[in-house]
C-alpha cells in the first residue's frame, strides 16, 4: 500500500451497492469531489480506531468519522466542498445532513438489520468468514448489538410501522427540498449531495425490500438523483448503466 497517498478504510461492496455503508459512500464521493487521490483498503469496524468505518490514513494522519474526514480534506487540501453557497444555504445543508445521518440512517438500519428476511439476506452474511461452528452465535451477537444501539438511540423503541412512518417523513422532506433541481443546493453539487447520495442509495437498493425503499421510489426525483450520482461517481457499477 502506497504511503504517498491517502488511504480510505472502507467496508466492501454488497447489497447491490458499491459499499454497504452510507458513510463510506459519502466519504468516497467527497474525496472524488475534492479531487484528492486515494486508495481503498477493506476493513471491519473492530479494526477501526473508534470501532466504525470509514476512517482515513492521510500519510500517517489518521482521521475517523465521515464529518471529521471531510473537515480534514477541506483544511489540508485547501478545498471548500460548499464553495458558492451562502450562509443560509450552508446552514440548510447542515440541517439536511443531520436529518439524514441522525434520523433516516437509523430507520434504514432497523429494516436492514432487524427485519428477519432482510437480515438473513444481507447482514447475516458478514459472519460467513467465521468458523462454521461460530457463525450462528456471531449472527445473533451482531443483531443483538445493533438492536441495543437502535434502542439506545430511541428509534428502535418503536414498532416497525412507526419506524417506517418516521423514516418516510424524512424521505418526503428530502424529495420536497430537492424538488426539480439537479442537486440539493442548486445547479452545482456540494458536500451535502455526497451525504444524501450515500443514504438514499442504501434506502433505494433493490437488494432489500423495505417500506422506506417503496417510499423513496414514490419520488421520481429521488430515484433520478441517485442514478445521476451513481453515473457520476461509480460509472462502472450496474446501477449506473
> What's the architecture of the largest domain, going by CATH?
Up-down Bundle
The CA-CA distance between the termini, in Å, is 31 Å
Average pLDDT for all residues: 95
Task: Enter the CATH topology name of the largest domain.
Answer: Glutathione S-transferase Yfyf (Class Pi), Chain A, domain 2
Any idea what the shape is?
globular
For the record, the count of structural domains works out to: 2
Put simply, the count of helices is: 9
Radius of gyration: 18 Å
Major beta sheet, specifics?
Answer: 4 strands, mixed
Task: Output the CATH class name of the largest domain.
Answer: Mainly Alpha
Write a brief caption for the model.
The chain is an alpha+beta fold and 241 residues long. The chain is 54% helix and 7% strand.
Keywords:
241 residues; alpha+beta; Glutaredoxin; Glutathione S-transferase Yfyf (Class Pi), Chain A, domain 2; 2 domains; four-stranded mixed sheet; 9 helices; 4 strands; 54% helix; 7% strand
Describe the structure.
It is a single chain. The protein is an alpha+beta fold. It has two domains: 72 residues, Glutaredoxin (3-Layer(aba) Sandwich), CATH 3.40.30; 145 residues, Glutathione S-transferase Yfyf (Class Pi), Chain A, domain 2. Strands 2-1-3-4 form a four-stranded mixed sheet, covered by helices on one side. Helix 1 packs antiparallel against helix 7, helix 3 packs antiparallel against helix 6 and helix 6 runs parallel beside helix 8. The longest helix is centred in the middle third of the chain and has 27 residues. The protein is globular and about 55 Å long.
Amino acid at each position: 500500500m502506497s504511503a504517498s497517498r491517502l488511504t480510505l478504510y472502507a467496508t466492501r461492496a454488497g447489497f447491490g451497492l458499491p459499499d454497504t455503508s452510507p458513510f463510506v459512500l459519502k466519504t468516497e464521493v467527497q474525496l472524488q469531489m475534492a479531487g484528492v487521490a486515494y486508495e481503498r483498503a477493506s476493513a471491519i469496524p473492530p479494526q477501526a480506531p473508534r470501532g466504525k468505518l470509514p476512517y482515513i490514513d492521510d500519510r500517517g494522519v489518521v482521521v475517523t468519522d465521515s464529518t471529521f474526514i471531510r473537515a480534514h480534506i477541506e483544511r489540508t487540501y485547501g478545498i471548500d466542498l460548499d464553495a458558492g453557497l451562502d450562509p443560509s444555504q450552508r446552514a440548510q445543508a447542515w440541517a439536511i445532513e443531520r436529518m439524514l445521518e441522525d434520523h433516516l440512517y437509523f430507520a434504514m438500519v432497523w429494516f436492514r438489520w432487524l427485519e428477519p428476511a432482510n437480515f438473513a439476506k444481507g447482514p447475516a452474511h458478514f459472519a460467513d468468514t467465521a468458523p462454521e461452528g461460530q457463525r450462528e452465535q456471531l449472527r445473533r451477537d451482531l443483531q443483538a448489538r445493533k438492536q441495543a444501539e437502535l434502542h439506545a438511540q430511541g428509534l428502535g423503541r418503536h414498532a416497525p410501522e412507526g419506524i417506517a412512518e418516521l423514516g418516510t417523513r424524512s424521505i418526503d422532506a428530502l424529495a420536497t427540498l430537492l424538488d426539480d433541481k439537479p442537486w440539493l443546493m442548486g445547479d452545482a453539487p456540494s458536500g451535502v449531495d455526497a451525504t444524501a447520495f450515500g443514504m438514499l442509495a442504501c434506502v433505494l437498493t433493490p437488494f432489500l425490500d423495505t417500506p422506506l425503499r417503496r417510499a423513496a421510489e414514490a419520488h421520481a426525483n429521488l430515484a433520478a438523483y441517485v442514478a445521476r450520482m451513481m453515473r457520476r461517481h461509480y460509472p462502472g457499477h450496474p446501477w449506473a448503466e
